[in-house]
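Sample intake sheet
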Amino acid sequence: MITAEDKRNPKDVNEPVRDKLTFYEHVLIPPKFDQIKISSKVNVETGSFVPTLEATTYIENDKKVWMNLRAVFLNVARGIATPEGIKGQDKVNKTYIDSDFEYLNNLLNVNFIDYKSLEKILLGRTFVKISDSQFTLTQNAQGYKMTSNINQKIVTDEKNREYKIVLQYDTNYDLLSVNLKDVLSPDELEISYSGWEEYEGIRLPKNVKIIIKGSKSSQILMENTKFDFSRMETPYSVPSSYKKIEIK
């Protein structure tokens, strides 16, 4: 617990945390919910013009993430993710994808995202594996910092990658940022969270910022304007005239 005295006299950034169990309980135990509907404004920066999008994201815990994107009151894209993979359609160009999570990993320049990681990213939860043996936990007046003390090797069928990982948490254990640097390439991913508030007993971030650097660079800003815990329908079907995009 950080006291007023601590803030007047900040602790050294490298001071180890004695009560690690409390920290891990707060950052690793998942929130309890059946479903969450998130209304957001989304700004995407890729170097080309993309209008501000209005997004509806519906998360059914451990089962599916459904998203609908609108621009100027027109539906422009829709997608659904399940533990089996991702389906999505571009209503403007009349194309669709049907893939495993390779599509999302390619988008973020990483190789470890699966369904549960996606849920955690959207809800501001720790989405990378952390352990006391491979990370160093320190504390100062601003909160907690987890730094990988050895490169984290993640092996998949497609790629073997090594990451240096740094996570920042607030004094109340809210996740502030996650930075993953691929030590074997220029690729880097940073996701940051702010505007945390409590909704029906669950702390959720109002702002999510995703910065992708490396072989391709882009930025995604999500401003979550409303959280709703009621159930909703999640229709998804692809018109027969749409063309399938092959993931390479």
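Comment: The helical segments are 4-8, 20-28, 102-108, 115-123. The longest strand covers residues 35-45.
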